[in-house]
Amino acid sequence: MQKPKAKIQPKAKMQPKAPGEWTTGLWGCFSDWGNCITTLFCPCITYGQIANIVQKGKTSVFTEARNYATIMYFTGGCCLYSCFSRSKLRHKYNLPQSPCSLPDCAVQFCCELCALCQEYRELQGRGFNMAIGFDLNPTDEDGMINAASINQVLTQINTLTNQDGTTNAAPASQVMTQADTTNNHQNDHHDDYQE
């Protein structure tokens, strides 16, 4: 007797999520002074970090920052370039157009620096470490921060073991030896200046 073949059911379409909320407002620039100052004097760095994460590491922070700086220097139209990343970010997290339901390009055009700071804070608020880029942040297939991956990485770091189950202290001792060598080398130079 043959078993009846199971019918492959089509995947149900996902219903759109209810609109999310931005973790901070457009005018909250001063809640992160470091990013505020960086964005004020070198917005290309902030944009590069945002674009790298929003594009799931397909381009480097350097490449995006360079592109932004080039467009800013030669045309002044960097707001048009950066509005695409804002749109991707909004769609990824189902965020409303804000403030006042303005389109992304209008927000970027009128308040470029505040918008970049808000996008940066949004990604930070969702668990991304902006300083290390997309590739080193533990993410799932959708490019979202994955708590299970974070725990897995921490477990791997904390339990360096050999195949036989014994703790492998060699990497830690090598790191300590390198640190001691660096400190001794710095102290040697420090002594030269004191004489």
From TrEMBL:
NCBIfam families: A_thal_Cys_rich (TIGR01571). This is Uncharacterized protein. InterPro entries: PLAC_motif_containing. Pfam families: PLAC8. It comes from Daucus carota subsp. sativus (Carrot). It comes from the Eukaryota.
